[in-house]
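Retry 2 of 3 after timeout on previous attempt. Resubmitting C-alpha coordinates to design endpoint.
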Protein backbone atom coordinates (compact mmCIF):
# COMPACT_ATOMS: atom_id res chain seq x y z
CA UNK A 1 0.00 0.00 0.00
CA UNK A 2 1.51 3.30 -1.09
CA UNK A 3 2.87 5.37 1.81
CA UNK A 4 2.61 2.52 4.31
CA UNK A 5 6.18 1.45 5.14
CA UNK A 6 7.75 0.62 8.51
CA UNK A 7 10.96 1.90 10.03
CA UNK A 8 13.35 -0.70 11.50
CA UNK A 9 12.17 0.32 14.98
CA UNK A 10 8.51 -0.30 14.06
CA UNK A 11 9.35 -3.71 12.60
CA UNK A 12 11.21 -4.63 15.78
CA UNK A 13 8.23 -3.57 17.92
CA UNK A 14 5.79 -5.62 15.83
CA UNK A 15 7.98 -8.73 16.07
CA UNK A 16 8.32 -8.28 19.82
CA UNK A 17 4.57 -7.84 20.36
CA UNK A 18 3.84 -10.82 18.11
CA UNK A 19 6.08 -13.11 20.21
CA UNK A 20 4.32 -12.03 23.39
CA UNK A 21 0.79 -12.54 22.10
CA UNK A 22 -1.21 -15.67 22.87
CA UNK A 23 -4.38 -14.30 21.31
CA UNK A 24 -4.66 -15.64 17.76
CA UNK A 25 -6.92 -12.79 16.68
CA UNK A 26 -4.45 -10.11 17.71
CA UNK A 27 -1.48 -11.98 16.23
CA UNK A 28 -3.35 -12.32 12.96
CA UNK A 29 -3.77 -8.55 12.78
CA UNK A 30 -0.08 -7.98 13.39
CA UNK A 31 0.75 -10.49 10.65
CA UNK A 32 -1.30 -8.50 8.18
CA UNK A 33 0.17 -5.13 9.15
CA UNK A 34 3.72 -6.50 9.25
CA UNK A 35 3.55 -7.96 5.74
CA UNK A 36 1.97 -4.83 4.30
CA UNK A 37 4.54 -2.55 5.91
CA UNK A 38 7.51 -4.62 4.72
CA UNK A 39 6.81 -4.42 1.01
CA UNK A 40 3.99 -6.82 0.32
CA UNK A 41 1.18 -5.52 -1.86
CA UNK A 42 -2.33 -5.27 -0.52
CA UNK A 43 -3.45 -8.00 -2.93
CA UNK A 44 -0.67 -10.39 -1.86
CA UNK A 45 -1.40 -9.90 1.86
CA UNK A 46 -5.10 -10.60 1.34
CA UNK A 47 -4.33 -13.69 -0.71
CA UNK A 48 -1.81 -15.07 1.81
CA UNK A 49 -3.98 -14.48 4.88
CA UNK A 50 -7.31 -15.22 3.19
CA UNK A 51 -8.91 -11.88 4.04
CA UNK A 52 -10.77 -9.25 2.06
CA UNK A 53 -9.30 -5.84 1.32
CA UNK A 54 -11.86 -4.05 3.50
CA UNK A 55 -10.64 -5.94 6.57
CA UNK A 56 -7.01 -5.10 5.78
CA UNK A 57 -7.81 -1.42 5.32
CA UNK A 58 -9.60 -1.51 8.67
CA UNK A 59 -6.48 -2.89 10.38
CA UNK A 60 -4.31 -0.22 8.75
CA UNK A 61 -6.64 2.49 9.98
CA UNK A 62 -6.56 1.17 13.54
CA UNK A 63 -2.77 0.99 13.51
CA UNK A 64 -2.40 4.48 12.10
CA UNK A 65 -4.79 5.91 14.69
CA UNK A 66 -3.23 4.30 17.76
CA UNK A 67 -0.30 2.02 16.97
CA UNK A 68 0.02 -1.61 18.03
CA UNK A 69 -2.04 -1.11 21.18
CA UNK A 70 -5.04 0.13 19.21
CA UNK A 71 -4.56 -2.56 16.56
CA UNK A 72 -4.74 -5.49 18.97
CA UNK A 73 -7.28 -4.11 21.43
CA UNK A 74 -10.92 -5.21 21.43
CA UNK A 75 -13.82 -2.88 22.12
CA UNK A 76 -16.61 -5.34 22.73
CA UNK A 77 -20.29 -4.54 22.63
CA UNK A 78 -21.77 -5.77 25.90
CA UNK A 79 -24.33 -8.52 25.40
CA UNK A 80 -24.31 -8.26 21.61
CA UNK A 81 -21.68 -10.84 20.65
CA UNK A 82 -17.95 -11.14 20.30
CA UNK A 83 -17.31 -8.87 17.34
CA UNK A 84 -16.77 -5.15 17.69
CA UNK A 85 -19.06 -2.73 15.91
CA UNK A 86 -16.43 -2.13 13.23
CA UNK A 87 -15.93 -5.86 12.72
CA UNK A 88 -19.66 -6.40 12.38
CA UNK A 89 -19.68 -3.73 9.69
CA UNK A 90 -16.86 -5.49 7.85
CA UNK A 91 -18.66 -8.83 8.17
CA UNK A 92 -21.84 -7.25 6.80
CA UNK A 93 -19.94 -5.87 3.81
CA UNK A 94 -18.40 -9.28 3.18
CA UNK A 95 -21.75 -11.08 3.36
CA UNK A 96 -23.22 -8.61 0.86
CA UNK A 97 -20.72 -9.95 -1.68
CA UNK A 98 -20.44 -13.61 -0.65
CA UNK A 99 -23.20 -16.23 -0.36
CA UNK A 100 -22.68 -18.95 2.27
CA UNK A 101 -24.76 -22.12 2.27
CA UNK A 102 -24.81 -22.55 6.05
CA UNK A 103 -24.12 -20.75 9.32
CA UNK A 104 -21.08 -22.94 10.07
CA UNK A 105 -19.29 -21.55 7.01
CA UNK A 106 -19.94 -18.02 8.27
CA UNK A 107 -18.60 -19.02 11.70
CA UNK A 108 -15.46 -20.41 10.02
CA UNK A 109 -14.97 -17.13 8.14
CA UNK A 110 -15.33 -15.14 11.38
CA UNK A 111 -12.74 -17.33 13.07
CA UNK A 112 -10.23 -17.04 10.21
CA UNK A 113 -10.73 -13.31 9.76
CA UNK A 114 -11.41 -11.97 13.24
CA UNK A 115 -10.16 -14.78 15.48
CA UNK A 116 -13.47 -15.17 17.30
CA UNK A 117 -15.21 -18.48 17.95
CA UNK A 118 -18.95 -18.68 17.27
CA UNK A 119 -21.27 -21.65 17.60
CA UNK A 120 -23.76 -22.30 14.81
CA UNK A 121 -26.52 -21.01 17.06
CA UNK A 122 -24.51 -17.94 17.99
CA UNK A 123 -23.71 -17.01 14.41
CA UNK A 124 -27.34 -17.58 13.42
CA UNK A 125 -28.44 -15.07 16.05
CA UNK A 126 -25.75 -12.66 14.83
CA UNK A 127 -26.94 -12.97 11.23
CA UNK A 128 -30.53 -12.32 12.26
CA UNK A 129 -29.45 -9.23 14.19
CA UNK A 130 -27.61 -8.02 11.09
CA UNK A 131 -30.91 -8.42 9.20
CA UNK A 132 -30.07 -11.57 7.22
CA UNK A 133 -32.58 -14.32 6.45
CA UNK A 134 -32.00 -17.81 5.06
CA UNK A 135 -33.47 -18.05 1.57
CA UNK A 136 -32.59 -19.02 -1.97
CA UNK A 137 -31.08 -16.52 -4.39
CA UNK A 138 -33.26 -15.62 -7.33
CA UNK A 139 -32.11 -17.29 -10.55
CA UNK A 140 -32.10 -14.91 -13.50
CA UNK A 141 -31.04 -15.28 -17.15
CA UNK A 142 -27.27 -14.88 -17.37
CA UNK A 143 -27.48 -12.70 -20.48
CA UNK A 144 -30.12 -10.24 -19.28
CA UNK A 145 -29.38 -6.68 -20.43
CA UNK A 146 -30.56 -4.01 -17.97
CA UNK A 147 -30.35 -1.11 -20.43
CA UNK A 148 -32.45 -2.92 -23.03
CA UNK A 149 -35.05 -3.68 -20.37
CA UNK A 150 -35.21 -0.01 -19.37
CA UNK A 151 -35.49 1.01 -23.00
CA UNK A 152 -38.39 -1.42 -23.50
CA UNK A 153 -40.27 0.00 -20.51
CA UNK A 154 -39.86 3.49 -21.94
CA UNK A 155 -41.30 2.29 -25.26
CA UNK A 156 -44.08 0.49 -23.40
CA UNK A 157 -45.15 3.71 -21.69
CA UNK A 158 -45.07 5.52 -25.04
CA UNK A 159 -47.23 2.79 -26.56
CA UNK A 160 -49.81 3.02 -23.77
CA UNK A 161 -50.03 6.80 -24.14
CA UNK A 162 -50.50 6.62 -27.91
CA UNK A 163 -53.30 4.01 -28.04
CA UNK A 164 -56.47 4.78 -29.93
CA UNK A 165 -59.68 4.35 -27.87
CA UNK A 166 -60.36 0.80 -29.10
CA UNK A 167 -56.79 -0.48 -29.23
CA UNK A 168 -55.67 -3.23 -26.84
CA UNK A 169 -52.37 -4.42 -25.38
CA UNK A 170 -51.91 -8.12 -24.66
CA UNK A 171 -49.06 -10.21 -23.26
CA UNK A 172 -48.53 -13.55 -25.03
CA UNK A 173 -46.61 -16.71 -24.17
CA UNK A 174 -46.97 -20.48 -23.95
CA UNK A 175 -46.89 -22.89 -21.01
CA UNK A 176 -46.42 -26.68 -20.94
CA UNK A 177 -47.89 -28.30 -17.80
CA UNK A 178 -46.87 -31.94 -17.40
CA UNK A 179 -48.92 -34.73 -15.81
CA UNK A 180 -46.63 -35.05 -12.81
CA UNK A 181 -47.17 -34.30 -9.13
CA UNK A 182 -45.34 -31.12 -8.09
CA UNK A 183 -44.59 -30.88 -4.37
CA UNK A 184 -44.57 -27.31 -3.06
CA UNK A 185 -44.18 -25.56 0.27
CA UNK A 186 -47.17 -25.48 2.62
CA UNK A 187 -47.95 -25.15 6.33
CA UNK A 188 -47.39 -28.52 8.04
CA UNK A 189 -47.50 -29.07 11.78
CA UNK A 190 -44.03 -29.25 13.32
CA UNK A 191 -42.85 -32.84 13.76
CA UNK A 192 -45.32 -34.24 11.24
CA UNK A 193 -45.03 -35.23 7.59
CA UNK A 194 -47.56 -34.77 4.82
CA UNK A 195 -47.59 -37.27 1.97
CA UNK A 196 -48.80 -36.76 -1.56
CA UNK A 197 -49.02 -39.46 -4.19
CA UNK A 198 -46.85 -39.25 -7.27
CA UNK A 199 -47.26 -40.59 -10.75
CA UNK A 200 -44.98 -41.37 -13.66
CA UNK A 201 -46.96 -39.57 -16.33
CA UNK A 202 -44.98 -37.97 -19.12
CA UNK A 203 -47.87 -36.55 -21.06
CA UNK A 204 -48.24 -32.81 -21.10
CA UNK A 205 -50.49 -30.07 -22.39
CA UNK A 206 -49.32 -27.26 -24.65
CA UNK A 207 -51.17 -24.03 -23.98
CA UNK A 208 -50.79 -20.81 -25.94
CA UNK A 209 -52.23 -17.76 -24.22
CA UNK A 210 -52.64 -14.00 -24.30
CA UNK A 211 -53.43 -11.80 -21.30
CA UNK A 212 -55.19 -8.43 -21.37
CA UNK A 213 -53.98 -6.59 -18.30
CA UNK A 214 -56.86 -4.15 -17.80
CA UNK A 215 -59.57 -6.82 -17.67
CA UNK A 216 -57.50 -9.85 -16.54
CA UNK A 217 -59.00 -11.69 -19.52
CA UNK A 218 -56.90 -14.61 -20.72
CA UNK A 219 -57.49 -16.18 -24.13
CA UNK A 220 -55.96 -19.64 -24.60
CA UNK A 221 -55.72 -22.44 -27.14
CA UNK A 222 -54.77 -26.04 -26.42
CA UNK A 223 -52.38 -27.47 -28.99
CA UNK A 224 -50.38 -30.58 -29.80
CA UNK A 225 -47.31 -28.39 -30.02
CA UNK A 226 -46.49 -24.69 -30.23
CA UNK A 227 -45.31 -23.47 -33.62
CA UNK A 228 -46.14 -20.90 -36.30
CA UNK A 229 -49.39 -22.64 -37.20
CA UNK A 230 -50.69 -22.74 -33.62
CA UNK A 231 -49.66 -19.10 -33.11
CA UNK A 232 -51.86 -18.16 -36.07
CA UNK A 233 -54.71 -20.13 -34.48
CA UNK A 234 -54.37 -18.00 -31.35
CA UNK A 235 -54.31 -14.80 -33.44
CA UNK A 236 -57.54 -15.77 -35.16
CA UNK A 237 -59.17 -16.56 -31.83
CA UNK A 238 -58.01 -13.21 -30.43
CA UNK A 239 -59.55 -11.37 -33.33
CA UNK A 240 -62.87 -13.15 -32.67
CA UNK A 241 -62.71 -12.35 -28.94
CA UNK A 242 -61.81 -8.72 -29.68
CA UNK A 243 -63.84 -8.31 -32.87
CA UNK A 244 -64.85 -4.74 -31.98
CA UNK A 245 -61.35 -3.70 -30.96
CA UNK A 246 -58.95 -1.68 -33.05
CA UNK A 247 -55.34 -2.72 -33.30
CA UNK A 248 -54.12 -5.47 -30.99
CA UNK A 249 -50.58 -4.91 -29.74
CA UNK A 250 -49.27 -8.31 -28.66
CA UNK A 251 -46.14 -8.32 -26.47
CA UNK A 252 -44.11 -11.51 -26.79
CA UNK A 253 -40.63 -12.98 -26.53
CA UNK A 254 -38.28 -13.69 -29.41
CA UNK A 255 -39.30 -17.26 -30.24
CA UNK A 256 -38.41 -18.01 -33.85
CA UNK A 257 -41.93 -18.93 -34.90
CA UNK A 258 -43.20 -15.46 -33.90
CA UNK A 259 -40.87 -13.94 -36.49
CA UNK A 260 -41.75 -16.16 -39.44
CA UNK A 261 -42.97 -14.26 -42.49
CA UNK A 262 -46.27 -16.18 -42.52
CA UNK A 263 -46.94 -15.18 -38.91
CA UNK A 264 -46.05 -11.52 -39.42
CA UNK A 265 -48.11 -11.28 -42.61
CA UNK A 266 -51.21 -12.87 -41.09
CA UNK A 267 -50.82 -10.68 -37.98
CA UNK A 268 -50.84 -7.61 -40.23
CA UNK A 269 -53.96 -8.85 -42.03
CA UNK A 270 -55.67 -9.28 -38.63
CA UNK A 271 -54.56 -5.80 -37.49
CA UNK A 272 -52.25 -7.31 -34.89
CA UNK A 273 -48.82 -5.85 -34.25
CA UNK A 274 -46.19 -7.87 -32.42
CA UNK A 275 -44.06 -6.00 -29.88
CA UNK A 276 -40.94 -7.97 -29.07
CA UNK A 277 -39.43 -8.05 -25.60
CA UNK A 278 -35.67 -7.76 -25.08
CA UNK A 279 -33.94 -11.14 -25.13
CA UNK A 280 -33.76 -12.97 -21.79
CA UNK A 281 -36.40 -10.78 -20.15
CA UNK A 282 -39.32 -12.98 -18.99
CA UNK A 283 -39.71 -10.56 -16.08
CA UNK A 284 -41.29 -8.04 -18.48
CA UNK A 285 -43.94 -10.43 -19.78
CA UNK A 286 -46.86 -10.16 -17.37
CA UNK A 287 -48.46 -13.40 -18.51
CA UNK A 288 -45.57 -15.19 -16.78
CA UNK A 289 -47.09 -14.11 -13.46
CA UNK A 290 -50.43 -15.50 -14.57
CA UNK A 291 -48.83 -18.85 -15.39
CA UNK A 292 -47.38 -18.91 -11.88
CA UNK A 293 -50.84 -18.44 -10.39
CA UNK A 294 -52.20 -21.18 -12.65
CA UNK A 295 -49.51 -23.61 -11.48
CA UNK A 296 -50.03 -22.68 -7.85
CA UNK A 297 -53.80 -23.24 -7.96
CA UNK A 298 -53.98 -26.25 -10.27
CA UNK A 299 -50.66 -28.11 -10.23
CA UNK A 300 -48.89 -27.68 -6.89
CA UNK A 301 -49.56 -30.38 -4.26
CA UNK A 302 -52.24 -31.95 -6.46
CA UNK A 303 -52.44 -35.60 -7.49
CA UNK A 304 -54.29 -36.48 -10.67
CA UNK A 305 -54.40 -40.24 -11.16
CA UNK A 306 -55.36 -40.11 -14.82
CA UNK A 307 -54.23 -37.75 -17.55
CA UNK A 308 -57.89 -37.11 -18.35
CA UNK A 309 -58.42 -35.88 -14.76
CA UNK A 310 -55.37 -33.63 -15.09
CA UNK A 311 -56.58 -32.19 -18.39
CA UNK A 312 -60.08 -31.61 -17.03
CA UNK A 313 -58.74 -29.65 -14.04
CA UNK A 314 -56.59 -27.48 -16.30
CA UNK A 315 -59.42 -26.78 -18.73
CA UNK A 316 -61.81 -25.96 -15.88
CA UNK A 317 -59.40 -23.32 -14.60
CA UNK A 318 -59.34 -21.54 -17.96
CA UNK A 319 -63.05 -22.00 -18.64
CA UNK A 320 -64.22 -20.17 -15.55
CA UNK A 321 -62.49 -21.60 -12.50
CA UNK A 322 -59.96 -18.76 -12.43
CA UNK A 323 -62.73 -16.25 -11.62
CA UNK A 324 -62.53 -17.13 -7.93
CA UNK A 325 -58.96 -15.80 -7.90
CA UNK A 326 -59.78 -12.36 -9.27
CA UNK A 327 -58.63 -10.53 -6.14
CA UNK A 328 -55.34 -12.43 -6.29
CA UNK A 329 -54.98 -11.50 -9.95
CA UNK A 330 -55.46 -7.82 -9.14
CA UNK A 331 -52.59 -7.97 -6.68
CA UNK A 332 -50.35 -10.05 -8.93
CA UNK A 333 -50.91 -8.45 -12.33
CA UNK A 334 -49.61 -4.94 -11.80
CA UNK A 335 -47.11 -2.97 -13.83
CA UNK A 336 -44.44 -2.95 -11.14
CA UNK A 337 -41.84 -4.35 -13.51
CA UNK A 338 -38.56 -5.50 -12.01
CA UNK A 339 -35.32 -5.00 -13.92
CA UNK A 340 -33.25 -8.17 -13.57
CA UNK A 341 -29.48 -8.15 -13.46
CA UNK A 342 -29.47 -4.67 -11.94
CA UNK A 343 -27.21 -4.13 -8.95
CA UNK A 344 -29.07 -2.82 -5.84
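Retry 2 succeeded. Sequence:
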Amino acid sequence: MQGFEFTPQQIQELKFQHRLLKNKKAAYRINAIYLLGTGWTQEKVCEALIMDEGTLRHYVKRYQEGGVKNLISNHYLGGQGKLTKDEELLLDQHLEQTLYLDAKSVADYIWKTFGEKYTVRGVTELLKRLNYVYKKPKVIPGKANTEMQKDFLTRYETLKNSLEPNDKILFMDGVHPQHNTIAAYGWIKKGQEKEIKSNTGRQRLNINGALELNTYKVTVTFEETLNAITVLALFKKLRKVYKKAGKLYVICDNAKYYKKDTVLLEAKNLNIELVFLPSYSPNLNLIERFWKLFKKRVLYNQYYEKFSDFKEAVEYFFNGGMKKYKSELKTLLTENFQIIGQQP
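Attempt log closed. Residues 8-129 form one domain.
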